[in-house]
Amino acid sequence: MRREEVGELKVVSNLRTSHAKVVEQLGLSIVGGRFGIGEPLPGDTELEAQYGVSRSVLREAMKTLAAKGLVIAKSRVGTRVTDRCHWNLIDEDVLRWHFRTGVTREFIDHLYDVRLVLEPASAAFAAMRATAEDCEQLRGYANLLGSNDLDWPSQVEADLRFHVLLTIVGGNPFLESMIGFIKASLDGAFTMAFDPQLAGRGEAITELHLAIVEAIEKRDPDGARRATEKAIEQGRAAALKAVDSSNKRT
């Protein structure tokens, strides 16, 4: 992703093609357990009728799901759902489908453990490579977090843009390849319909992110790493509260 594209990032993307819609619906059905592990999916004719698509569109959708590790096709057996150990959990769509269909405390903990590996490292690299313009842009997004002038989705988008830009500024192409994972992780906050008060927005969240920017401006990699770890742990606590709140309602 290029830096100039960060400002256009949205929390929710519209599904514009028949292929994308079929992948989305089948992906949600698999991750949500409608089709169990090892079970065959319905035949092509049934799925074509259900989704109103051609055989070629359906086959391309199956190839996409197979690439994400969710299904495997075998001659004379059909297409079956694979074991969860084969699912590509860092895939943006697969992660988003988990949030859409419901996540557990254990899932959240594992997810935030990975964020703790990736994002503080990006922040440390950013402290060595960021320009004054980069810092100004990061500061702008940080100041939007918790703003009373923005609705909740816009605040989440500011958070998303901050963390994606932080990864890009770090300048490590391998970490940049994880942007989809980071985006889906933050998107999950909105998917789970956080209560802004529960999520700890406002001045506290702004201060956490400004601390990251200030460390980067000081060329302090260790400080940037620690500040990012603190922000991620706050996000973990908010996510766990959201899961607990959801469980109480069900």
UniProtKB/TrEMBL annotation:
Matching entries from InterPro entries are given as:
GntR_C (IPR011711), TF_FadR/GntR_C (IPR008920), Tscrpt_reg_HTH_GntR (IPR000524), WH-like_DNA-bd_sf (IPR036388), WH_DNA-bd_sf (IPR036390)
Matching entries from SMART domains are given as: FCD (SM00895), HTH_GNTR (SM00345)
**Looking at the keywords, is rRNA processing present?**
no
Keywords tagged on the record: DNA-binding, Transcription, Transcription regulation
Which is one GO molecular function term here?
DNA-binding transcription factor activity
Q: Which residues form the signal peptide?
A: none
**Record's superkingdom?**
Bacteria
Entries under PANTHER family matching the protein: GNTR FAMILY REGULATORY PROTEIN (PTHR43537:SF44), TRANSCRIPTIONAL REGULATOR, GNTR FAMILY (PTHR43537)
Any idea what this protein is called? DNA-binding FadR family transcriptional regulator
Q: Name the source organism.
A: Rhizobium rosettiformans
